[in-house]
Amino acid sequence: MENENIIRKVEKLLNIASDFTRLKIMNALLDESKCTCTCDSCGSCRHRHCMIEKCVGDICNEIGASQSLVSHQLKVLKNANLIDSRKEGNRVFYFLKDGHIKDLLRIATDHVMEEG
Amino acid sequence: MENENIIRKVEKLLNIASDFTRLKIMNALLDESKCTCTCDSCGSCRHRHCMIEKCVGDICNEIGASQSLVSHQLKVLKNANLIDSRKEGNRVFYFLKDGHIKDLLRIATDHVMEEG
DNA sequence: TGACAATATGAATGGCTGTTCATATACTAT
DNA sequence: ATAGTATATGAACAGCCATTCATATTGTCA
Fold first, then answer.
1. Which long-range contacts (CB under 8 A, 24 or more apart) does B76-82 make?
2. pLDDT in tens, B33-91
3. Hey, are the CB atoms on B107 and A110 less than 8 Å from each other?
4. Among A88, A111, A102, which Cα is nearest to A17's?
5. What is the pTM for the complete model shown?
């Protein structure tokens, strides 16, 4: 891939990640304290395969946003391949698709916490 | 810092990072092949202190953008504390201020390259 | 089948910001 | 001083997109 092209894609990725609502959604989906991963070191899990799934309604409640807004943004995240979903009866469960995002959010968070 | 506040700051950080022109500028400032770092492992340097400085005119030429645009975006990056500058005679040299950004860009790049 | 719950979708809009153009400032050299 | 070079700044505009409102779809249970 040429350089220009890569930068265009990075731009797109960061654009999608740089929205308050979407950040809260992703944050809700990587809440490590509620991690369901069965690996032995989980708790403060840093493993790529460690993720949590939540249905739309729960996400709405947790982040305090309207159902419509959350649904719209979930679609954006899904189109960008950052999350995926699983249907179960009436509900749809969403989960982070990729460990890169987890890393990216951690680095960004570290940055703003160090800067103050 | 409360969670909400952190997310707001991450949003701001990623917003600033998610622009094509600014990405190209930052990319120009972390071009590792031209790294001036004196550490022994440099070449494909992954060290935080390793960075390169360039004056505005050179950045314009390298990324193919107008002087005005580059100057505007340099200001944005500087206000966000992502870069800093040093004056030398007529010219102003800019350089990345922080290693986090380097990491962030690397992870984002890795992501888009794996996704294809 | 009908009522209800969960999620998705479409249209409309208001605010934000990347870019350009024109101009100002700062520094150098003759 | 004057001309020339390097950089910064301000205003204005155009395009994008996050959010809301209203409504559609899908599934469950009685």
1. B76/B16, B76/B22, B77/B16, B77/B22, B77/B25, B77/B26, B80/B12, B80/B13, B80/B16, B81/A115, B82/B16, B82/B17, B82/B26
2. 555 554 443 444 444 445 689 999 999 999 999 999 999 999 999 999 999 999 999 99
3. no
4. A102
5. 0.88
B1 CA – C5 C1', rounded, Å: 37
Query: Given a cut of 50, is residue A97 above it in pLDDT?
Result: yes
Nearest CA in chain B to A110: B100
Q: In a mutagenesis test of the A interface, which of B12, B77, B106, B111 is the best target, namely the one with the most A β-carbons within 10 Å?
A: B111
B46 in reach of chain A (CB within 8 A):
no
The pLDDT tens digits for A46-78 are 444 456 899 999 999 999 999 999 999 999 999
Q: Which residues in chain A are contacts of B48 at CB distance < 8 A?
A: none
Residue-wise burial string across B4-26, b where 16 or more C-beta atoms lie within 10 A, e elsewhere: eebbebbbebbbbbbbbbbbbbb
Measured in angstroms, the CA of A92 and the nearest CA of chain B are apart by 24
DSSP code, position B34: G
Number of inter-chain CB pairs under 8 A, A vs B: 90
Taking the C-alpha atoms of residue B76 and residue A2, their distance in angstroms, rounded to an integer, is 26
For chain B, state the CA radius of gyration.
Answer: 15
Name the residue type at position A75.
Answer: K
CA distance linking residue B21 with residue A104, whole number of Å: 20
